[in-house]
Design goal:
This protein folds into 2 domains: 173 residues, DNA ligase/mRNA capping enzyme (D-amino Acid Aminotransferase, Chain A, domain 1, 2-Layer Sandwich); 76 residues, Nucleic acid-binding proteins (OB fold (Dihydrolipoamide Acetyltransferase, E2P)), CATH 2.40.50. The radius of gyration is 21 Å and the shape is globular. By secondary structure, it is of the alpha+beta class. Helices cover 20% and strands 29% of the residues. A 5-stranded mixed sheet has the order 1-10-9-2-8.
Length: 275
């Protein structure tokens, strides 16, 4: 009996993972592309989750410990989307879904769907499969992300500005006629008014003024070896408890200087390893 308990403890971590799903991934939009007639929607800054008909799985293959009451009325077919609460709430969302036991914090989340994998037809046809299901079995936790038909590039720019003015991350634009594909594709693009990248935390600068005795900025190294300081965008919580050295963080910036450094870098988040 003791040996059996030991083996259960030894292999327990393996029950936390599933096969890593092959997911639709986005390429980046550029203005030379013609996207008239495509669908556009807000790019939600949440945590990616894939429902395989039985369980919620992260981009990296981790099984989320969602409460049974959250998923009990989910469909038996696959759906793909973002666990989300509201704009500019990523740290809270990530904290909720990372916990290894089900808890009531999931009541603050909804599952926002942008794809119904392995169904026939274009994007609308695939989303209609879920819409028809929800008409029969309404579910307050599942939301289908609204898709708007893009008239032209000016319409896209106007929509992007509207989203960003509200604090949104950006826009996703997709060829509504394309069949389902589970890899990075030019038929699905992210649109932002800024660039984003990743870097490794290698040190810290002390704060001054109102940030005295707190973190002033993170010293980070990009993949190409360029060293940058990230101070803008840090929350008071992170200034009190900064990411450890070696952690990868995501930041946004407005192009590069002539020396190849990001202009006006702003901290966005600790890289979500769940994804």
């Amino acid at each position: 009996m003791i040996i059996c308990k030991y083996l259960l403890i030894l292999f327990l971590p393996f029950f936390l993972f599933a096969q890593k799903p092959d997911l639709l991934l986005l390429k980046t939009y550029n203005e030379s592309l013609h996207v008239d007639g495509w669908f556009m929607s807000e790019k939600l800054d949440g945590v990616r989750a894939y429902w395989d008909g039985k369980k919620l799985i992260s981009r990296g293959g981790k099984v989320f410990k969602a409460p049974k009451w959250f998923t009990k009325d989910f469909p038996l077919f696959e759906i793909d989307g973002e666990l989300w609460s509201k704009r500019d709430d990523f740290d809270n969302i990530s904290g909720i879904v990372r916990k290894q036991t089900p808890h009531k914090g999931w009541k603050n989340l909804t599952y926002n769907i942008f794809e119904v994998p392995n169904q026939k037809g274009g994007l609308k046809n695939r989303l209609d499969v879920l819409d028809d299901f929800l008409k029969v079995k309404p579910n307050k936790y599942i939301k289908i992300i609204k898709q708007i038909t893009c008239k032209d590039k000016q319409h896209l720019k106007s929509f992007l500005k509207k989203i960003e003015d509200k604090g949104g991350e950006g826009v996703v634009i997709r060829n509504q006629n394309a069949l389902y594909i589970n890899k990075r594709t030019a038929e699905a693009l992210k649109v932002k008014s800024f660039f984003d990248s990743e870097c490794e935390v290698i040190g810290y600068k002390k704060g001054r003024g109102k940030y005295e005795n707190l973190l002033g900025s993170l010293i980070c190294k990009m993949k190409n070896g360029v060293i940058i300081n990230l101070g803008s965008g840090l929350s008071d919580i992170l200034r009190r408890n900064p990411p450890k050295k070696g952690i990868i963080v995501t930041f946004k910036y407005q192009g590069l200087t002539k020396n190849g450094k990001p202009r006006f870098p702003v901290f966005m988040r600790v890289k979500d390893e769940i994804k």
